Amino acid sequence: MGVLRIGHASLKVMDMAAALKHYEKVLGMKQVMEDNKGNVYLKCWDEWDKYSLVLTPAEEAGLNHVAYKVEHDADLDALQARIEAYGIATRVLPEGTMPATGRMLQFQLPSGHEMRLYAMKERVGTDVGSTNPDPWPDDITGAGAHWLDHCLLMCEMNPETGVNKVAENTEFMSRALDFHLAEQVMVGPGNTIQAATWMFRTSTPHDIAFVAGPRMGLHHIAFYLDSWDDVLKAADVMGKNRTRIDVAPTRHGITRGTTIYFFDPSGNRNETFAGLGYLAQPDRPVTTWTEDHLGSGIFYHTGELVSSFTEVYT
Ligand code: M3P
Ligand code: FE
Predict the structure, then answer these.
(1) Is 56 left (phi over 0), alpha (psi -120 to 50) or beta?
(2) Which of 61, 66, 56 minimizes the C-alpha distance to 244?
(3) Mean of the per-residue pLDDT values for the chain?
(4) With 103 labelled, which of 65, 189, 218, 254 sits at a CA distance of 20 to 30 A?
(5) Which residue range(s) make up the domain with 183?
(6) Are residues 156 and 292 in the same domain?
(7) Residue 150 falls in the annotated catalytic set
(8) Of 113, 150, 180, 219, which one is the catalytic site residue?
(9) CA-nearest residue, atom 3 of ligand 1
(10) What is the CA radius of gyration of the chain?
(11) Residue 179 and residue 107 share a domain
């Protein structure tokens, strides 16, 4: 019942050929189609639905919308009623608004990011199939990302005006969409201001995260890898391809994931994220990071924040 997982991200790119080269050669995604508006659809080898990334030609980088898949079509009606009751307007986009995808419930998070929910997307199967599958396909390219794992949205926070869209989004996701809070960063006097949250519907520590910043935007979309070895190999692939790396392989205290941050050619930040971290259970106590330990929460080894990492986003 309810939300299953992240389904796709729709990203704006300035140079489609360069973007395609990046997502195919570095991440290892495959193009599955292009529509008549020049939007390109891609998937990872271990995903069974038709696409998880849409690249749209634009003048600037950034996120168009992020979509989450729900289990049943009727969930869309139930969630629409709850979102509207929460005080957020919704629209139903008819089946076919996006190719191979059923009707979508469209709304804005309190932070202003566009979110969509859908129940149906054409199932094309993973690259190893579902009958006696090999552990991985022979034609893996680049980092060989398994699937789109999560996104991190930057949300406006201004302690002077009291605006805190991280807290508003977190409340909304938990009350209207039944997301669970895994971890949070608390800052300010007495650590009373919720400045970042990691929330889940699957059994991994996060399917979405919100971090405070001066303005709303996209911090990153993240792709799943199996292991630390795969993170190292992904960094090698980035070296070969002269990918602009933001943060070289390291580990997060928060979620325990191992990670690389890097940019697509338009400047949208990507992450390759490995490891389960821990099995996220709805009844787990919330992990809290206090402001004095924020550096270790984000980058566990150095315990230090990197300025580009917190200041640059699309
Ligand atoms: C992650 C993660 C920030 C922290 C990011 C953490 C932007 O990306 O996957 O746990 O401060
Ligand atoms: Fe992440």
Answers:
(1) beta
(2) 61
(3) 97
(4) 218
(5) 147-311
(6) yes
(7) yes
(8) 150
(9) 298
(10) 19
(11) no
C-alpha 135 to ligand 2 mean position (Å): 25
224-232 mean pLDDT: 97
- How many domains is the chain built from? 2
Task: Establish whether 84 is a catalytic residue.
Answer: no
CA distances from 185 to 228, 244, 259, 272 (A): 25, 28, 19, 22
Whole-angstrom distance, CA of residue 186 vs CA of residue 133? 44
Q: Are residues 303 and 174 in the same domain?
A: yes
Tokens of 54: 């849409």
The Å distance, Cα 309 to ligand 1 centre, comes to 10
The one catalytic residue among 22, 180, 219, 220: 220
Q: Could you confirm whether 252 is annotated as catalytic?
A: yes
Q: Do the Cβ atoms of 257 and 273 come closer than 8 Å?
A: yes
- The answer to whether residue 192 is domain-embedded is yes
Q: How confident is the model over 37-72, as pLDDT tens digits?
A: 999 999 999 999 999 999 999 999 999 999 999 999
Q: In this structure, is residue 142 part of a structural domain?
A: no
Amino acid at residue number 251: R
What does the alpha-carbon distance between residue 314 and residue 309 come to, in Å, rounded to a whole number? 12
What amino acid occupies position 137? P
CATH number at residue 87: 3.10.180.10
The whole model's pTM is what?
0.97
pLDDT interval class at 276 (50, 70, 90): confident
Q: Is residue 125 part of a domain?
A: no
Identify whether 135 is part of a domain: no
Pocket around ligand 1 at a 6 A CB cut-off:
152, 196, 209, 211, 219, 222, 252, 254-255, 257, 271, 273, 298
Examine the domain organization and report whether 301 and 188 are in the same domain: yes
User: Residue 307: is its pLDDT beyond 90?
Assistant: no
